[in-house]
Amino acid sequence: MADGDKIAPMELDEAKARELEEQFDSEIRFRPLAPMAARIVGTLLVALSVFHYYTAGFGLLSEMLHRGIHLSFVLGLIFLVFPFSKTGYSEPARASLIRPLGISLFDWALAIGAVVAVMHVPFIPLDDLAFRVGNPTTTDVVLGGILVLVLLEATRRSVGWPLPIIAICFMTYSIYGPSMPGILVHPGASFSQLINHLYLTSQGIYGIALGVVATYVFHFVLFGVFATRIGLGQLFLDCAAWVAGRYAGGPAKVSIFGSALFGMISGSSVANTVTVGSLTIPAMIRMGYSRPFAGAVEAASSTGGQITPPIMGAAAFLMIEFLNLPYTTIIIAAIVPAFMHFFGVLVQVHFEAKRTGMRGMTKEEMPDLKEAFKRDWPTVIPLVVLVGILLSGYTPYLAAFWGITLCVLVGLFNPRRRMSPAEMFDSLRDGAKYALAVGAAAATVGIVVGVVTLTGVGFKISYIVTTTAAEIAAFIGTFMPAAWFGPQALTLLFTLIMTGIVCILMGCGIPTTANYIIMATIAAPTLGMLGVEPIVAHFFVFYYGVLADITPPVALAAYAAAGMAGADPFKTGNTAFRLGLGKILVPFVFVFSPSLLLVTADFTWSNFFIAFIGCTLGITFLGAALSGFMLVRTAAWEKPLLILSAILLVVPELTSSLIGFALVLPVLYRQFSGYRATPAAL
């Protein structure tokens, strides 16, 4: 029925995409402001972008001052643009004596208090600060306490309750350590000692998390905004449509390829979902896909933006700091995991399209790629230069500086898609909008990290997890031959399972960046105790944290896609999770076969190809089992064999892979026999 509907050309409406993003992404949904307040907020946002652009190109300030200026802007603006409760989103409040410019005196007081508390530490002379660490003054304790309170409230407004609650639990643990049970007991810290550690040292609020956001992440987000505005996003979508649109279920495959390309310049799951989805979701529905499935495809695809090099959200830059590795090492390691993510979704989308008889896009519905490049080729220059500078070994923020500069030049001088001064202003403003929620979250995560370093609770949690995993492994090991899994491998396996579950649960309530930092602080050392390389452990916890964006009950990307598709959010989330099941296996593969990440110490090409081929086949067979189709519809007896063979194939060991392939041979024979009887073009 819908196959006869003509699909309109996929022309990206950037204004509409911004409206959709503000509608579905709570982290950039500002309350309505009176005209004067809106102008003030807009000017402050632009000033924040200009500050970061200038320092990236002409020299960063001292570490504490740079982070302090960033955080003072972030917290001050949050109290101006995020209301105390959801009722504040209805309409602009009228200006009055108790509401200057339509914003309550309470919010003004919080904003001013936040700025004063944040900027107190950067202006303490270094010699004096070194003396006061461990011996804080009354002013330090009072202002530090104020900063903790306003930071928790700013995070609650911009991100939600879960992260502040986690931070409060950790602070409570630090103070009441003597009352904790068993191994969790510790001497405890006074309120003054806690504030001293969180406020005056670089291991708390002003720590790595805030530093990475202020030094790296902001610049690349701003670059992504400018790159999209000058037309690079449209060019990516045209390329995706030309590559994938002609095949069965065309718009769904365009969604996958478009999200993969768009993920190169945007590390946000929700931003990818609404930008690419504004075009692909309606096209999928017109093609005949159900509304929940159309939304799920876009959500599952767009989640990959956070693991797609070269930007990868904030993760790549955090890994630089945590692991002390070059940026090039991180993005090379991300190549195969990102490929497996999109391949896993593509397999299920293809099988679904074949099962339901979807057509591809016609020549008239597809873009003219030659014309697209003729129109938008200058937009590729900033990205090429940015990647080139990164690969040359220069700092990421300098690469972002030149990328943004070239975006501006292209926007000013490209006659086919010229940016006006107003659009430049909007780009600077919108780039800073993304920094507010992530900045508050990063500073709040600093509280969690600070408590971990103050109390040593990370090692205690690691001990509990590994001990529990060893006990489970010992019990399970009695039921299987020792030749299959040794005690150490079983212990690692169950540690990974528990860690993955915690990553997903944590990610359901807090942003991916915050989730990664917490798990990298607590869970990654646990894996390190079992012999896992640091880069492998960090990729494992990050990969699983990303899955939370498509894991109900809090699947932000899936719910945004559901809103755009007019579908049931929970059903869309469940379908997106099912589409992502194939890639759930991938982190286990690169833990047991680190060669899959290309940069590990024991990398060999033989191990890489065994793991890569096994993982690819395993994801394919699992996708066939979940979709109920391969070459023809799968029979009931085929699904268990496909699932079992998929699990054995992804085990990065030749013997298990051969056993897995042998198990699937009857299924392949029956599928090819059925295909020859009722051929259908692949």
Main attributes of the structure:
C4-dicarboxylate ABC transporter permease; 0% strand; globular; 31 helices; 682 residues; mainly alpha; transmembrane helix; TRAP_DctM-Dct_fused; transmembrane transporter activity
Tell me the layout of helices and strands.
Layout: H1 14-24, H2 35-58, H3 63-81, H4 105-120, H5 126-132, H6 138-158, H7 162-175, H8 191-200, H9 208-229, H10 232-244, H11 250-262, H12 269-287, H13 291-302, H14 315-323, H15 327-333, H16 335-356, H17 369-376, H18 380-391, H19 396-413, H20 421-455, H21 457-477, H22 487-507, H23 512-529, H24 534-546, H25 556-565, H26 569-579, H27 581-584, H28 586-592, H29 605-627, H30 638-650, H31 654-677
Helix pairs in contact: 1-12, 2-3, 2-9, 2-19, 2-20, 3-4, 3-9, 3-20, 4-6, 6-7, 6-8, 6-20, 7-20, 9-14, 9-19, 9-20, 10-11, 10-17, 11-12, 11-13, 11-16, 12-13, 12-25, 13-25, 13-26, 16-29, 18-19, 20-23, 21-22, 21-23, 22-23, 22-24, 23-24, 24-28, 25-26, 29-30, 30-31
